[in-house]
Design brief:
about 180 residues, globular
Length: about 180
């Protein structure tokens, strides 16, 4: 594990693997977002943009643009009282953001790796009336999706940061289970 002054070596191939993992964790939550906003493609577009990068596409501005659009979708659904859909959109945002994982050994970068899983887990939890067992189940599924490259990249970073409410707890649970 490094400290926050250390630069971490990350290859494009590793970034693609991290983005692919983030997509795999976030994609199941699309059903929640699209259930509330069937005509809103912003979350899906963010996940598709991240998937294109994971599938050997270039890391382009369109990925960032789709991430910002998913962020706006998350804010709008939150403001409309659609908390589960908001976290589902945040999972999509995190998947697109994974393509831009920074090579700085800061605990906050762990969110780029695990944020999509945690937000998707929270979306499922909220969709089930706030049942933490549902979130724990999604975290367990996300743990199974993390192959060796993702775990190796994660281990180069400090442990996940404190705070962040329930999503932060879910990130730390997944982080601890993968190390």
């Amino acid at each position: 594990m490094a400290d926050d002054t250390t630069t971490i070596e990350l290859s494009t191939s590793e970034l693609r693997d991290v983005a692919g993992y983030a997509v795999a964790c976030a994609r199941p939550a699309l059903v929640i977002f699209e259930g509330e906003r069937p005509d809103d493609r912003r979350a899906r577009d963010a996940i598709d943009a991240a998937q294109a990068f994971a599938d050997s596409g270039r890391r382009v501005k369109a990925i960032r643009d789709s991430a910002w659009a998913a962020h706006r979708a998350a804010q709008e659904t939150r403001d409309a009282g659609q908390a589960a859909a908001s976290d589902a959109a945040r999972a999509a945002l995190a998947a697109a953001s994974a393509a831009f994982l920074h090579p700085l050994a800061k605990a906050t970068q762990v969110k780029h790796i695990l944020g999509s899983a945690a937000h998707a887990a929270r979306a499922f939890e909220l969709s089930a009336g706030g049942d933490p067992a549902v979130g724990a189940h999604h975290i367990a599924q996300s743990q199974l999706l993390a192959h060796a490259v993702v775990v190796d990249v994660l281990r180069r970073y400090p442990d996940a940061p404190r705070g962040g409410g329930r999503v932060g707890e879910l990130i730390r649970q997944l982080d601890a289970s993968l190390r």
